[in-house]
Design brief:
Strand order of the largest sheet: 3-2-1-4-5
Subcellular location: Golgi apparatus membrane
Largest sheet: 5 strands, parallel
GO cellular component, one term: Golgi membrane
Organism: Quillaja saponaria
Radius of gyration: 39 Å
Structural class: alpha/beta
Helix content: 40-55%
CATH class of the largest domain: Alpha Beta
Low-confidence stretches: 1-7, 10-22, 45-73
Order of helices and strands: HHHHEHEHEHHEHE
Membrane topology: Single-pass membrane protein
Distance between the termini: 140 Å
Number of strands: 5
Shape: elongated
Mean pLDDT: 79
Keywords: Membrane, Transmembrane, Transmembrane helix
CATH topology of the largest domain: Rossmann fold
């Protein structure tokens, strides 16, 4: 009876070949995963080494550039300055400065402690020359023609130029000078903050930072004064004088040059 019962309870279990294949498939997936992981690790390791090498190379290049920059902080060689003056003074432009006019300004810029702050009233044929001579310094130009100033700045992005609206007229020269003499102790003081000035000859609508800079050299070569209603240079000369006297830091002196000082207005 036991035997029969055992036989009746016996179950036949057949292992389908698919189960064996499935086990092999799992092993293949595991092997593929390990392979991918190994490849990813190797790629990461190689990339890290290349990144380290690139960083080292970049640091070396930066050091080299820094070294070159340090060298470029020196002033222009005398031969370069003399060459620039030579060709500028022989330009075909009828409004150019002569060599004797260029040389004193160049000499002062050359002796100016770096970085030298140079303010120029007027965009002229010498604009690029002034920028070049004040090597590694700060050169700012002021001009009365906003359209020409914008055009010039677009043509030469390295030039820093601002436009200003003059309220003076050359024909009012005598009245303006008399007004300044009367107000010399009040609105037209030689030392003052021009940003808040009410003096008729004081320019108070320049960018704020222009009044905050201690200018080492100022050149008045504008605006134009060729006709009675032209602005004339009285306001530029007065403003340059106040900026020079109101200097608080930087080099001890401010050198002010006025071009065409013998002409009226």
């Amino acid at each position: 009876m036991k035997n029969n019962n055992n036989n009746n309870n016996t179950k036949l279990i057949l292992l389908h070949p698919y189960i064996q294949k499935q086990g092999s498939s799992n092993r293949l997936w595991l092997l593929a995963f390990i392979s991918l992981f190994t490849i990813a690790f190797l790629v990461t390791l190689i990339y890290s080494r290349e990144s380290t090498t690139t960083t080292t190379a970049t640091a070396a290049v930066a050091a080299a550039v820094s070294s070159v920059s340090g060298f470029s902080n020196t002033q222009l060689p005398a031969t370069v300055i003399n060459t620039l003056l030579h060709y500028s003074s022989r330009s075909n432009d009828s409004f150019r400065m002569s060599y004797s006019e260029l040389k004193p300004i160049s000499d002062v810029l050359r002796k100016c402690s770096s970085p030298c702050n140079f303010l120029v009233f007027g965009l002229t044929p010498e604009t690029l020359l002034w920028k070049a001579l004040n090597h590694n310094g700060r050169t700012v130009f002021i001009d009365e023609n906003r359209y020409y100033a914008s055009y010039y700045e677009e043509l030469h992005p390295e030039i820093d130029v601002y436009d200003v609206q003059y309220t003076t007229k050359r024909s009012e020269l005598k009245e303006l000078v008399a007004s300044v003499k009367e107000q010399v102790r009040n609105e037209c003081k030689p030392v003052q903050n021009l940003l808040f000035s009410e003096c008729k000859l004081g320019l108070n609508d320049l960018p704020n930072h222009v009044y905050e800079v201690d200018w080492d050299v100022i050149l008045v070569d504008g605006p134009r004064g060729d006709w009675p209603d032209a602005p004339g240079r009285m306001s530029a000369i007065f403003t340059a004088g106040v900026l020079a006297r109101s200097k608080k830091g930087g080099n001890g002196k401010t050198h002010v040059f006025v071009h065409d000082f013998v002409r009226r207005g």
